[in-house]
Amino acid sequence: MYLLSSGFGGLKRFFVREGVKKMIKRILLSLLIITAVGASAVGATKALLSDSVTLTANTFSTGTVDLKIATGKNGGTFQDTQVGFTETDIFPGQTRTNFFRLRNVGSGSPDLLIIAQAANVSGGIAASDVTITITPVNSSDVPVGSAVSHTLDSWLSTPDSLSPPNISANTTQRYKMNVTISSSVTTASASSIFDFVFTGTQVP
Fold it and tell me: Quick one: pLDDT band at residue 144, thresholds 50, 70, 90?
């Protein structure tokens, strides 16, 4: 009985060892297959060809913004600086009207938004007693935009926009300028002297 029992135990241990060996073989075979597939994938990736091209010497240049001014409704020469208007014998409460034109002559210029501001104000009439109203008009003097009106001291301290309309490239916009002396002025033979600066700014 002892030998028989021992024999069955030996067989049992034999079959267990054989099962373990087969399992290890299967695991090793699976690892080999995974490794081979991975190596093939890497090899395939490395086998892909590539090439590069280059776009050289890219140059982008800014255009120019060039604003010119001329006095009067028509004629005259557009320049960077123009001598303004001279009006005499204006009485308190009266308004005098003059015209000027701005031209956008920049190379490939964008539309320009126009900002106006007074400068170098002097004379015996207080700046608060002089009102300047600027209106964009067409060739028939019909308004094509809103009038902008401030006393001279306000124009001096706070620039204001004369747009719309903006001024497109190679086009001219006419403006009417009204100058009104306050009825409260009582000083005779007094004057008001001032510059106006117009700045064209690119419209995004």
Answer: very high
